[in-house]
Design a protein that fits this description.
The strands form three sheets. This protein has a seven-stranded mixed β-sheet, with helices on both faces. Strands 9-11-10-13-14 form a five-stranded mixed β-sheet, sandwiched between helices. Strands 1-8 form a two-stranded antiparallel ribbon. By secondary structure, it is α/β, with parallel strands linked by helices. Helix content is 43%, strand content 19%. The chain folds into two domains: 4-233, 3-Layer(aba) Sandwich (Rossmann fold); 237-349, Rossmann fold. Helix 1 (8-18) runs parallel beside helix 2, helix 1 (8-18) runs parallel beside helix 6 and helix 9 packs across helix 12 (335-349). Helix 9 links the parallel strand 10 (247-250) and strand 11. The protein has helices spanning 8-18, 33-46, 56-68, 79-94, 121-125, 143-160, 170-174, 213-233, 253-268, 286-293, 309-317, 335-349, and strands spanning 4-7, 23-26, 49-52, 73-77, 99-105, 136-138, 163-169, 176-179, 237-240, 247-250, 273-278, 280-282, 298-303, 323-327.
């Protein structure tokens, strides 16, 4: 297929449509609003359903209802919207309802601003709501991956019966790059749990209220076992020059592209530096970092935040090497700025 120039937000919407999404429920908020606008234009032509709800709370409740039918449905918002949707996300996770949740992140806390940020990392990777639950979180680094990860998110959601989030910086949502369209998905796995009229079977019930403490504990064990399987099978990361690296930089999303250029420059100056780009923020790619920690002398977490992913890097390194942090908020550091930080650390440590 020929490449098409698309904005990141448009690409993620097109990826969802290509994956067979039939309904979008949302409430506009910058810098994600183009996703809703794209769906509002496309769905009337495709026979799908677009609803601008009266609030984020209403939108996520509509996602719950739509996902209960077994069809592929989604919502999109930004950090403050995810906060408002957090109760509904917890309900979706307990009911094991697959869906796509998109967070085009803005700076915070509070209203913050629409400048680039990755400071929703804790919000996304620590469940996003109350109770013992997790959701899969994918972090694209290009407009092409915005499209591809939307499709992958629906596949993972159906495979594990779990909400999946695609989280990208506002800058990535707004920037334009050429993308290769994908073939439309026409075959889907069976969903015997779905609510669809039950003409020839007993009724299915989608419920998250468990008054019996024994049954509540049992449900949490069921979910916990599923999360263990996901951790074992779905850790994903891109590694770059980590085999002989003395210093390994960890960065995700748009930041990883800038770090990769910085790593290339520092390599030219004679320092052995590598990059690990987490693709799944949950499950965090612990195994990739553990492998690098067998030989690396230091790690550096680079983020567009005040330092959130660095906690997971330290846990994965498990004391085998020191872990440093460098971050900006609302502004994307240049490759030269990152290269300077890497060289300072390398010279300080003598490698």
């Amino acid at each position: 297929m020929k490449k098409v120039l698309m904005k990141g937000n448009e690409a993620i919407a097109e990826g969802a449509l290509t994956a067979g999404c039939i309904a979008f429920f949302g409430y506009p908020i910058t810098p994600s609003s183009e996703i809703a606008e794209y769906m509002a234009r496309k769905f009337p032509l495709l026979g799908g359903t677009f609803v601008q709800a009266e609030s984020e709370l209403a939108a996520i409740s509509m996602v719950y209802g739509g996902a209960s039918t077994g069809f592929r449905v989604m919502t999109a918002t930004s950090g403050p919207g995810i906060s408002l949707k957090s109760e509904g996300i917890s309900f979706l996770a307990e009911a094991e309802l697959p869906c796509l949740i998109v967070n085009i992140s803005r700076g915070g806390p509070g209203l913050g601003g629409i400048q680039p940020a990755q400071s929703d990392y804790w919000q996304a990777t620590r469940g996003g709501g109350h109770g013992d639950f997790q959701i899969i979180v994918l972090a694209p680094s290009s407009v092409q991956e915005m499209l591809d990860f939307a499709m992958e998110a629906f596949d993972l959601a159906d495979k594990y019966r779990i909400p999946v989030m695609v989280m990208a910086e506002g800058t990535l949502g707004q920037m334009m790059e050429p993308v290769i369209p994908r073939e439309k998905v026409t075959q889907f796995i069976g969903k015997p749990w779905a609510i669809n009229g039950c003409k020839d079977r007993k009724p299915n019930i989608v419920n998250t209220l468990h008054l019996s403490p024994e049954f509540l504990e049992e449900r949490n064990h069921v979910l916990g076992d599923k999360y263990k399987v996901i951790k074992a099978n779905e850790q994903r990361a891109e590694t770059y020059w980590t085999e002989d690296a003395d210093l390994v930089v960890v960065a995700f999303g748009l930041m990883s592209r800038i770090v990769k250029k910085a790593v290339m420059e520092v390599r030219k100056r004679g320092h052995k530096v590598g990059l690990i780009r987490p693709i799944t923020l949950w499950p965090f790619p612990v195994e990739h970092i553990k492998k690098a920690a067998e030989t690396a002398k230091m790690f550096l977490s680079v983020e567009i935040s005040m330092g959130q992913m660095v906690d997971d890097v330290r846990l994965a390194v498990n004391g085998k090497a020191p872990v440093e942090f460098y971050g900006r908020i609302g502004m994307i550091p240049s490759p030269e700025e990152i290269a300077d930080q890497i060289i300072k650390l390398a010279e300080r440590e003598g490698f």
